[in-house]
Amino acid sequence: LITDIYQPVVGQSVIVDRQFLRLQEAIGKEIDYQEELLEVLGMMDTLFATFTKKRDTCLEENKSNGLTEPIGTNTSN
């Protein structure tokens, strides 16, 4: 939208050209930040998936060894 509005004066005004360069730099930085955040999110997803698998495995091991106690109602009233 901004480029559509100022397209007729691009190349005619030093001020507008300078502002477009600043906008281009800001957008480039934002894209870099977004890419880094996506990488970090991927790493976190991997960690959480690993944690969940280990936790599930530990729970299954405890059940098979008889270390977990069933939760139920007290029948010795």
From TrEMBL:
Domain U3 small nucleolar RNA-associated protein 15 C-terminal: 2-47
UniProt superkingdom: Eukaryota
Pfam families from the UniProt entry: UTP15_C
GO biological process per UniProt: rRNA processing
Gene Ontology CC entries for this record: nucleolus
Protein name: UTP15 protein
Species this protein is from: Ceyx cyanopectus (Indigo-banded kingfisher)
